[in-house]
Amino acid sequence: MRENSILIFFFVLIFAMMLFQWIRKRQKKEDDRLSAFGQAPTELDYELDSIELFHHYAKEKSAERFVDEITWNDLNMKDVFKRINVCATSAGEEYLYHLLHQGEFNKEQLAVREELIDWFIQNSAARVDVQKILFGLGKQAYNGFAHSLFHTEESHLKAPWLYAVLAVLPILSWGLLAISVGAAVIAFVLTGALNAFIHFYFKMHLEKDLASRRFFSAMLRTVKKLNQYDQSGWQKNSTALKEAYKPFRYVRFVGGSASAQPAANDMAIFADYVRMIFLVDIIKYNYVGRVMRRNQQHLRALFETLGEIDVAICILSYRESLPHCCLPDFSDKAGMRFEGMYHPLLNNPVVNAAKIDNDSLITGSNASGKSTFIKALAINNILAQTIHTCCASSYELKGGLVVTSMAMRDDILSGESYFIREIKSLKRIIDDVEAGYCTCFIDEILRGTNTRERIAASTAVLESLHQTKSICIAASHDLELTEILAGQYDNYHFSEQIVGDDVVFDYTLKDGPSQTRNAIRLLERMGFEQEIVLKAYRLADK
Questions:
Q1: Is residue 259 domain-shared with residue 367, that is, in the same domain?
Q2: φ, ψ (nearest 5 deg) of residue 77
Q3: Same-domain check for residues 9 and 87
Q4: Along the 542 residues of the chain, how does pLDDT read in single tens digits?
């Protein structure tokens, strides 16, 4: 009897030490994340393939228009997402990634999102409380929930009663203590080993679904805490969350790493052993899956509403981290009107102001800032319609799909040349503007072919876009287009100054077409032989 007491004391002591260490680590991590609010994120290396899965499945099920992959890549939106993303949960960052792809302008949805953000501004202490609750859910790459969300019908195990019987055996084995301690230990080890084998067998075949169930359990626990949070005014913000939660309020939580965090500490490892021995994951697997299948609409609403809460705090932090920003104004008038506008990925950006109410050509010398400017415009149009934030002092626009044609490359695997890919990219823009209002951004139109045909084809494409109700902004080196399209396209330009032997750019947008070229000057600046430079000047003057 004394030996048993010592053994129990020993296990309790070890457990208490593990628990204390786990609490300290968790508290430090929480404090670090809270202090990072309003700062540019430092965690930039994570699994985007995992984060994009919700968007992938949601897009398949939707008839709405989304920012396509060409536009996403042209604008380096992956880096924009990383600059914004300080979400506390996987649900938040997956929803944010999807949100930044949305192309359908929804003013009512933006108003609801801004109301929640404003509540967090007015209640900073409550914002911290909500963040702490969200930290409890945390992030887990490849959690499998996005797949389960849209394919709830795929997973089902037969004979669930069998696993319930097997789970009880390790407990019953301790009944042998009345006969012999050794017999009880042996029985416990054997039944535990059997269940561990079954656990690993199913884990091998159902890992994605088991991870999904664990994440869902942790998500339900988080939602329950948010619904129980008692703060004046919060109940209004959590109404939709409570409604979505109702069908799942009796679902008991699947075991596993309690916060959906990877099993990287002693407490999580201990919890894993408990799950294996008592088949917790498998027993709950069918039950949870059945509830999810019967309530698919509520399930998605639960995920998206939780994502909205996390994203609202993320947006607020992003705004705090910017040099300056504003809320967009939406107008029925096509185009953009802005002051103090800049590119969100630049550390020391130059701001610009303009009133672009018509299709426009942006001309200018090499490296003068044309491409950066139109990318800044396109990104701000997306941010305005998704996170209701613009990197500007003021920004007015008409809501609509943003579509670009900029950074084409040869595709060796498909055998497509640069020019073929470019004309396909332009064709999709023509198709998009026929489907509804768009803001189109084109950089160096048709540069993959010879000058004569480029001018002719560019003119035809740009004139066709001008006949639509959409807005087209094109950057080009071809000054001939400014003359051919006069009266249809407005003209703006970027220019440089020659200071001694140096070429200095101010990156400031100016009215009218460009009057300067600097390609030969840049050859000279980069140290080409004088003979080459002089010959280039002579040929240019002919």
A1: no
A2: -65, -20
A3: no
A4: 566 677 676 677 777 777 777 666 666 666 667 778 889 998 888 889 999 999 999 999 898 999 999 999 999 999 999 999 999 999 999 999 999 999 988 999 999 999 999 999 999 999 999 999 999 999 988 888 999 899 877 666 777 778 878 787 887 777 776 677 777 787 778 888 888 887 887 777 777 777 888 899 899 999 999 999 988 889 888 899 999 999 998 887 554 443 444 444 566 677 777 877 888 777 777 778 888 888 999 999 999 999 999 999 999 999 999 999 999 999 999 999 999 999 999 999 999 999 999 999 999 877 788 999 999 999 999 999 999 999 999 999 999 999 999 866 645 445 567 778 888 899 999 999 999 999 999 998 887 677 788 889 899 999 999 999 999 999 988 889 999 999 999 999 998 776 666 777 889 999 999 876 666 666 666 667 777 766 666 666 65
Q: Which has the closest alpha carbon to 403: 70, 100, 167?
A: 70
- Structure-block tokens of residue 490: 């407005």
Compute the distance between CA of residue 202 and CA of residue 316 in angstroms, rounded to an integer. Answer: 42
Question: How many other C-beta atoms are found inside a 10 Å radius of the C-beta of residue 393?
Answer: 15
199 and 141 in a single domain? The answer is yes
Distance separating alpha carbons of residues 111 and 399, to the nearest angstrom: 14
Please name which of 393, 313, 301, 411 lies closest in space to residue 349, comparing C-alpha atoms: 393
Side by side, which strands form the sheet with 510-511? 401-405, 438-443, 471-475, 360-364, 490-494, 510-511
Structural domain harbouring 25? 1-32
- Tokens, residue 280: 């917790």
The residues pairing with 475 across neighbouring beta strands, listed in sequence order, are 362, 443
Co-location of 413 and 301 in the same domain: no
Together in a domain, 82 and 120: yes
The answer on 239 and 178 residing in a single domain is: yes
Does 78 lie in the same domain as 178? yes
Cβ count within 10 A of residue 266: 16
How would you class 221 by CB atoms within 10 Å of its CB: exposed for 0-12, middle for 13-18, buried for 19 or more?
middle
Q: Which of 99, 360, 151, 135 is nearest to 225 (CA)?
A: 135
**pTM here?**
0.83
Which helix or strand (DSSP H or E) is residue 306 part of? helix 296-321
CATH number of the domain at 89, please. 1.10.1420
**How far apart, in whole angstroms, are the C-alpha atoms of residue 368 and residue 354?**
17
Where b means 16+ CB within 10 Å and e means fewer, 69-81 reads ebbbebbbbeebb
On the 0-12 / 13-18 / 19+ scale of CB atoms within 10 A, 158 is exposed
Same domain for 18 and 72? no
Last residue of a domain, which of 321, 348, 369? 321
| Domain end (from 321, 337, 370) | 321
CA distance 472 to 520: 30
In order, the DSSP letters of 385-435 are HHTS-BSSSEEEE---EEEEE-----BTTTTB-HHHHHHHHHHHHHHHHHH
Single-letter amino acid code for the residue at 522: L
